[in-house]
């Protein structure tokens, strides 16, 4: 082999890591990235027609020994780039008025990559930069669980140096339906012949949707506790509707009238965080720059910039408009409740951290506490405040079967509302310290 050919081969190997490519610079960020980012696709399915896109960030501490996390955004159909840039990644979008130039990125202080390696996955196919070479058929919760497991096995076979790292599945919102089932799938798959087992240790979920049909009823006691509805309306609803406010019998006109009154009081509330203005236009024009959710407009400007796509090594022609959440993916919500999966995973000894931003009316903390109570685990560390710098950051309770529940005081539906507090909570839990 000639020296020139050897040099070119070394150059190629230095820039391509297994299935992915190292990204050293990103448009909008000044200078080289201060962490190691790899992006790429893994083909899943028999013909590997489905190409799922991921962002992998190595731990900034000790990648060889620190845990490996898989992060899944909710939706279903939301890109994990949202988790990376809003919730727990080492970069965030700078909040500034868009002027046609690539939006700016800044370093964060709260990244979970300070103590863990993280794979941010765009799933299902159609979310983020994931695409299919053939028409996308209908998918579902149970299908996605198997596909993500397939992705993990293939990703680890191409990154064998991480096979021995402690592995955790993490996410929030709708991933509350996927993560517990995925943990069970991985656990069972570890006993099947011929593939190296995944070193599964547990999972983390924020404001998880768990048993939606039942959980929506907790919005009413939440609204009452937050003074959004009157004592009289709450008492009347309890008495007349008997705790069922969602699937009301059309003949029950008394209950329906009370539910209508409830909606008059709450429909203009920001459901993700009740203290923030309800200013997101949600497709009815551009969100105003002084709105918190202007960042959602900026992330779409950033991800749809051709220079950004080139830097991320997105295959040309595979994706038209990038949307933070793709609501058009044909999807069957076929896991009605993920509670049985939680019970099974706890029985098998997997650790879990379930946390709730306590100002989220979409998935109220009371709903999460209710299904945890239904598991009937004994309490090993009863309800108490957890602190940051001598200030109460939330409340926590630890159960037998290695399950920890925590609230994030002042938090919303996802970690993005209080990323610093959520990061400190995660850091304590992942290292085995009490919150």
Automatic annotation (TrEMBL):
Signal peptide: 1-19
Gene3D superfamilies, per database record: alpha/beta hydrolase (3.40.50.1820)
Matching SUPFAM superfamilies: alpha/beta-Hydrolases
Keywords: Signal
Pfam annotation, one family: Peptidase_S10
Transmembrane segments: none
Family affiliation: Belongs to the peptidase S10 family.
Listed name of the protein: Serine carboxypeptidase-like 10 isoform X2
Organism: Camelina sativa
Source organism phylogeny: Eukaryota, Viridiplantae, Streptophyta, Embryophyta, Tracheophyta
């Amino acid at each position: 082999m000639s020296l020139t050919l050897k040099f070119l081969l070394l150059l190629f190997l230095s820039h391509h890591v297994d299935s992915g490519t190292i990204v050293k610079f990103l448009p909008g960020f000044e200078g080289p990235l201060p962490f190691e980012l790899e992006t790429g696709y893994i083909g899943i399915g028999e013909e590997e027609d489905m190409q799922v896109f991921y962002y992998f960030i190595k731990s900034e501490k000790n990648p060889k020994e620190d845990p490996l996390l898989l992060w899944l955004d909710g939706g279903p159909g939301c890109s994990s780039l949202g988790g990376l840039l809003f919730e727990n990644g080492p970069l965030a979008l700078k909040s500034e008025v868009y002027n046609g130039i690539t939006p700016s990125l800044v370093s964060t202080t709260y990244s979970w990559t300070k103590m863990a390696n993280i794979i941010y996955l765009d799933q299902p196919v159609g979310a983020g930069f994931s695409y299919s070479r053939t028409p996308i058929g209908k998918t579902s919760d149970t299908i996605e669980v198997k596909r993500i497991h397939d992705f993990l096995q293939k990703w680890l076979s191409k990154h064998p140096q991480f096979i021995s790292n402690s592995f955790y599945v993490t996410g929030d919102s709708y991933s509350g339906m996927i993560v517990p089932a995925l943990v069970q799938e991985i656990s069972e798959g570890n006993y099947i012949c011929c593939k190296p087992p995944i070193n599964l240790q547990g999972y983390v979920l924020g404001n998880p949707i768990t048993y939606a049909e039942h959980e929506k009823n907790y919005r009413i006691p939440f609204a009452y506790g937050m003074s959004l509805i009157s004592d009289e309306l709450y008492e009347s609803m309890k008495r007349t509707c008997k705790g069922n406010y969602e699937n009301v019998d059309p003949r029950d006109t008394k209950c329906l009238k009370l539910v209508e009154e409830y909606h008059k009081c709450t429909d203009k509330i920001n459901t993700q965080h009740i203290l923030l203005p309800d200013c997101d236009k949600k497709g009815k024009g551009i969100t105003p720059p002084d709105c918190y959710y202007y960042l959602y407009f900026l992330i779409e400007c950033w991800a749809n910039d051709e220079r950004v796509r080139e830097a991320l090594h997105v295959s040309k022609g595979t994706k038209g408009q990038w949307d933070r959440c793709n609501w058009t993916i044909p999807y069957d919500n076929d896991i009605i409740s993920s509670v049985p999966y939680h019970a099974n995973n706890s029985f098998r000894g997997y650790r879990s951290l379930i946390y709730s931003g306590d100002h989220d009316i979409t998935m109220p903390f009371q709903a999460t506490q209710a299904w945890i109570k239904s598991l009937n685990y004994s309490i090993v560390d009863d309800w108490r405040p957890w602190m940051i710098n001598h200030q109460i950051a939330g409340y926590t309770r630890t159960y037998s079967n290695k399950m920890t529940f925590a609230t994030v005081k002042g938090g919303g539906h996802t970690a993005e509302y209080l990323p610093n507090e959520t990061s400190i909570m995660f850091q304590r839990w992942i290292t085995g310290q009490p919150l």
